[in-house]
Amino acid sequence: MTVEPVVHIGARSVRGTAAEGVRVFRGIPYAAAPTGADRFAAPRPADWTGEFDARAFGPTAPQFDLAGIPGLPDLSVIFGAGWIRGEDYLNLNVWTPEGAAGGLPVMVFLHGGSFTGGSGRDVSYDGTRFAQDGVVLVTVNYRLGVPGFLHLPDAPDNRGLRDQIAALEWVREHIAAFGGDPDAVTVFGESAGALCVGALLAAAPAGLFRRAIVQSGGASQAMPVAQAERVTAQLAGQLGVPATVEGFAAVPDETLVEAVMQLGGAPFEPTADGGRDPLMGLTKLGPVIDGDLLTEQPVDAVRAGAAAGVDVLAGSNSEEMHLYLVALPSPETTEPLLQAAARTLHPDPAALLDAYRGAGRGSTPLELLSAIGTDYMFAVPTARLVEAHAPHPGGTWRYEFTWRSPGYDGTLGACHGLELPFMFDNIGRVDYGVLDVRQDDEAVRELAARMHASWVAFARDGDPGWPRCTPETSVVQRIGAEWTLTTTADGPEKELWQGIR
After folding, report:
1. How far is 54 from 6, CA to CA, in rounded Å?
2. Which of 18, 123, 218, 456 is 20 to 30 Å from 138 at the Cα level?
């Protein structure tokens, strides 16, 4: 009979499960349930007492169920399984080795999902392999959508980020009881979670984490208040409520979720002063430069030394936008659509397209749009973050994930989210469906083991296993069927993004 593990945290305790040499504690509330008007307040301390039953995952933040959209493939391995209802969704999950005596490195994962979906309980983020390799792995749920990121003039902005800070503070206070070292915390995230990590490099109180990993994100995509106000006005108009906490507090979560889905995905047109949508229309909600938690683009704060002393590993995938253009239902990528997108993203679209064609980044409109979008949203912000951090204390490393999925007759490529099965090393444990990562391929399993080991080594020792970047040279580790180093990952076409945000 398996003994259920119990961990004491102060006057409280949590009861979990044990299997495969790993103890798991699920759904632990790290902050009070955000209900009513409190959905738009700063997080408050969790108010539970006694012993908490952490044997089953807890609820998730309100979000749309993507499975309900006709014609959409199963994207649960990337965007999560949808809304699991319940008030106490500000919770986290802990995987830790059985018999852990203490002092283990800790990794805290922030999930992606366009700031409107996903959760730390999603099967893709199972932390068993990390725990088996001597890491205490934590996944976090945080507020999404309107409660998490809508700008309201009478509420604190960036509530989702504030939740993440509260979770990191919980880790700081309690993770030693689970065998972790509170002074050896790595915060890491993918997609929207990576953008959150980029923001936390600028906004989190010093000492909450020692290392950070930014996967397919960056630190230069926070929204100006003017753009956030446009989103708020649009949502308030859809709902017929005042753009205030009182107005939105009267709207149930179901209606807020539906309203966000109706916002649409087109990027905002450039403003009169040349400002562009930093999120490229992939989402209308995200971190806001609020003058409080974020006083400027996070990358500028990093450049000024806000993350000095933190080790940073950052990277992106070679063909991020293939997920959106190949796997998701979307209009055919024609030459007129490509031209229109280029006009939205760059003040000189003709020069931009000429540069990408000249660099061999694509021969069809889809390939060119994917390359341009991949650079605008992911690769260029990654390079900016690395360049900003490299002069400061704390090492800086960069990677590019190049392994190409055979999905969609080989056209899915090295798309957004594809590195997750390899980084978590869950191939064989999880069916990755649309990503077409085949568990019976020995080379795939070897790549997963090697990439996962690099992430573990970074969390444990502060070195993923390749040369760091310096102010003079940006060394990029290409991770794929072959592992190669390059110092020329940023071709001349990327120079056209200088000064464009």
Report:
1. 9
2. 218
Residue with tokens 């949502």: 235
Task: Given the residues 191, 316, 318, 454, select the one marked as catalytic.
Answer: 191
Q: Is 1 exposed, middle or buried (0-12, 13-18, 19+ CB in 10 A)?
A: exposed
* Cα gap 77→332, rounded to integer Å: 25
Neighbours of 292 (CB within 10 A): 11
Please tell me the number of Cα atoms within 13 Å of 73 on its side-chain side: 18
18 by Cβ neighbours in 10 Å (0-12 / 13-18 / 19+) ranks as middle
- Give DSSP secondary structure letters for 369-403: HHHHHHIIIIIHHHHHHHHHHTTSSS-EEEEEE--
* 369 has pLDDT over 60: yes
Exposed, middle or buried, 241 (CB in 10 Å: 0-12/13-18/19+)? middle
Tokens describing residue 403: 């392994």
CA–CA separation, 91 and 110 (whole Å): 12
Residues in contact with 252: Cβ distance below 8 Å, sequence separation at least 6, in sequence order: none
Listed ranges 92-96, 262-266, 273-277; the one with the highest mean pLDDT: 92-96
Strand-pair category, 396-401 with 136-140: unpaired
Per-residue HEC secondary structure of 120-157 comes to CCCHHHCCHHHHHCCCEEEEECCCCHHHHHCCCCCCCC
For residue 69, the model assigns a pLDDT of 72
Structure tokens at 135: 């890491």
Average pLDDT of every residue of the chain: 95
Output the CA torsion sign for 330, 271, 319, 68: negative
8 A C-beta contact, residue 28 and residue 14: yes
Cα pseudo-dihedral 68, 74, 196, 178, rounded to 10: 110
Catalytic hit among 416, 454, 474, 493: 416
Q: Pairing relation of β-strands 91-97 and 22-29?
A: antiparallel
CA atoms within 13 A on the CB side of 423: 27
Exposed, middle or buried, 356 (CB in 10 Å: 0-12/13-18/19+)? buried
191 is catalytic: yes
Beta strands 136-140 and 91-97 are antiparallel
Of residues 301 and 441, the one with the higher pLDDT is 301
Please tell me the distance from the alpha carbon of residue 41 to that of residue 129, in angstroms, as a whole number: 36
The model's pTM is: 0.97
**372: its two tokens:** 């341009």
Q: Which of 190, 319, 320, 493 is catalytic?
A: 320
Strand partners, 379: none
To the query of whether residue 389 is one of the catalytic residues in this protein, the response is no
> Minimal CA–CA distance to 315: which of 422, 396, 391?
396
